Amino acid sequence: MSPVAVTQAPPSPAPPPAGPAATRRRGRPARPKTDGVAGYVFLSPWLLGFAAITAIPMLMSLYLSFTNYDVLSDWSATEWVGLDNYRQMMTEDPSFWHAVRVTITFALVATPLKLAAALGVALLLNRSFRAGGLFRGLFYLPSLLGGSVAVAIVWVSMFNQDGAFNSFLGWFGITGKAWVNDPDYALGTLILLAVWQFGAPMVIFLAGLKQVPAELYEAASVDGAGPVRQFFNVTLPILSPVIFFNLVLETINGFQGFTSAFVLSGGTGGPVDSTLMYTLHLYNKGFTEYQMGYASAMAWVFLLSIGLVTALIFRTGKFWVHYSDGED
Amino acid sequence: MTLRARPFVLVLLTAIVLYPLVWMLGSAFKSPQEVLNNMSAWPREFTPGNFIDGWNHFDVAFGRFFLNSAMVAGLTVVANCISCLLAAYAFARLRFRLRGFWFAIMIGTLLLPGHVLIVPQFVMFKTFGWVGGDWPYAPLIVPQLLATEAFFVFLMVQFMRGVPKELDDAAKIDGCTAYGVFRHVILPLSRPALVSTAIFSFIWTWNDFFRQLVYLSDLEKYTAPVALTLFIDSTGQSAVGPMFAMSVLSLAPVFLFFVAFQRMLVEGINTSGLKG
């Protein structure tokens, strides 16, 4: 996967000015062409971190996924079980498939809704007006707070039997229920919590909207295009790289929801597995049942799936993402 | 939409978006009976009782959890600022073999979900004897000392690319080595990027739950988010008010940061994202 295409816009560093530095040396040895040693000195914490915290654990987890390792017994009791964990996952663990379904549903529903909300509000805020910055900040606030346990707790209470949502429904004479305890609705409340945090992609959309040249709108309106056509024929195509960027980011985020599901279900993924996010199932397998070999296998399936989905989004991007020539 | 309708739509949207927070704040001040039967955001009478009950709800005072959270967040801030700045300087300014290769890998780790590595990391830290014990926070902080938070490396690289190269060259002509350029040019000029990194590090670590849940098992060592989940398990209705009160308190630092640095937080997202 190469997110570089979108995220790394800036120009490559200018070529080193060879002239003055080379001619100006006064008796000092010529400056070496590269900062090889210094480069690796400065990079060394990152390199060590990449090796020890990322690369080696990744290989280790691949190895563990073929074993029955549990953290409680001794290493010597660990056996190579081949593809057993993977087979068990696919055929003997119904909760695994529940987790897959819950996670895909969550990502598939929450991501488009969140992006639509983000784009919609960004369009409202786009033209500069007094207090625009204030609104932008207030809409962004949930993105800062929303991932916390505290907000998840409040959210669950809000959608409980005697929560704020039911009192709102009461105005219309509707008697609500304990939405968070109903298998049909529990995941829906978590999706709402994710959509509520539309502020972060909204801010990125706003930055993107600022880049749309005003001349294009003028030209379009001279040609007789109304606001709707301008949106579909000017705004959307020009904004498509930003939409793409947000889509990749939010989809990957969507797959990783954990905190809200943990809080709603007290860690179980209930009611009846309806909020069993993949990461929650992985956590329970690895850290409450101590089946770390199995959890490692789940982690690899997760990683490959996310890679696949990202690759898929990049593949479709070719058909709908337009990069204008003028960009940088 | 006509121009005149827009302010009303915006105000309505703001009210909907902020309502959960207002409701939480109001509920935190309701009396135990009111919390159960008054669903509006506004308490009939304000009582601070929930804050006192919540603070003393467990065997360990809630203040201890806040202190633990503050320590983890504080150390993470320092670790991220130092390690990511060093790595970013190498990527943005120094020329060395395989730079492009390592940079691509760093970008790749941006998208790597932390959940994938949690099991082997746990096994590794346990082997080191870092899990449990008197100071169980090493697994939460040591990775940050090694610049594993690629987002901040990337943010700082983007920032440094905006610093004029001529300054480096001038310093070099004056006899600065790569280390001197870092010390006298990049470090002082990177202050805005460091401040963004510090604020985001603090907020994300303060809100982080997954890793703290995995590594902290001793009540005495719990951070605030992990301690908050204990309220969920104590199912008694009497805990609802104190739970809200402690939730409000735990969001207060993030909220204060938001009030103080609102513009910067919003801009920080942009500098890291699209345009350098």
From TrEMBL, chain A:
Annotated InterPro entries: ABC_transporter_permease, MetI-like, MetI-like_sf
List where the protein spans the membrane.
Answer: 37-66, 99-125, 137-158, 185-209, 230-249, 292-314
Residue ranges of region Disordered?
1-32
Q: Where is the composition biased (Pro residues)?
A: 10-19
Q: Which controlled-vocabulary keywords does the entry list?
A: Cell membrane, Membrane, Transmembrane, Transmembrane helix, Transport
List where in the cell it is found.
Cell membrane
Q: Which domain of life is it from?
A: Bacteria
Question: What cellular component GO annotations does this protein have?
Answer: plasma membrane
| Key word Cell membrane present | yes
Q: How does it sit in the membrane?
A: Multi-pass membrane protein
Question: Can you give the residue ranges of the ABC transmembrane type-1 domain?
Answer: 100-313
Q: What processes does the entry annotate via GO biological process terms?
A: transmembrane transport
Q: Which family does it belong to?
A: Belongs to the binding-protein-dependent transport system permease family.
Which protein, by its recorded name, is this? Answer: Carbohydrate ABC transporter membrane protein 1 (CUT1 family)
Organism in which the protein naturally occurs: Actinoplanes lutulentus
From TrEMBL, chain B:
The membrane topology noted for this protein in its Swiss-Prot or TrEMBL record is:
Multi-pass membrane protein
- Which Pfam families does the UniProt record give? BPD_transp_1
- InterPro entries of this UniProt entry? MetI-like, MetI-like_sf
Lineage top rank: taxon: Bacteria
- Which Gene3D superfamilies does the entry link to? MetI-like (1.10.3720.10)
Q: Which UniProt keywords apply?
A: Cell membrane, Membrane, Transmembrane, Transmembrane helix, Transport
Transmembrane stretches, by residue range? 7-29, 65-89, 101-123, 135-157, 189-206, 239-261
Task: Provide the protein's localization.
Answer: Cell membrane
Keyword Transcription, does the record have it? Answer: no
Q: Output a single Gene Ontology CC term carried by this record.
A: plasma membrane
Residue limits of the ABC transmembrane type-1 domain?
66-261
**SUPFAM superfamilies per the UniProt record, alphabetical:** MetI-like
Q: Which GO terms describe its biological process?
A: transmembrane transport
Q: Which CDD domains match?
A: TM_PBP2
From the UniProt annotation, give the residues forming the signal peptide.
none
The Swiss-Prot or TrEMBL record describes its family as follows:
Belongs to the binding-protein-dependent transport system permease family.
PANTHER family to which the protein is assigned, alphabetical: ABC TRANSPORTER PERMEASE PROTEIN MG189-RELATED-RELATED, ABC TRANSPORTER PERMEASE PROTEIN YESQ-RELATED
Protein's name in the database: Carbohydrate ABC transporter membrane protein 2 (CUT1 family)
Q: Which organism is it from?
A: Actinoplanes lutulentus
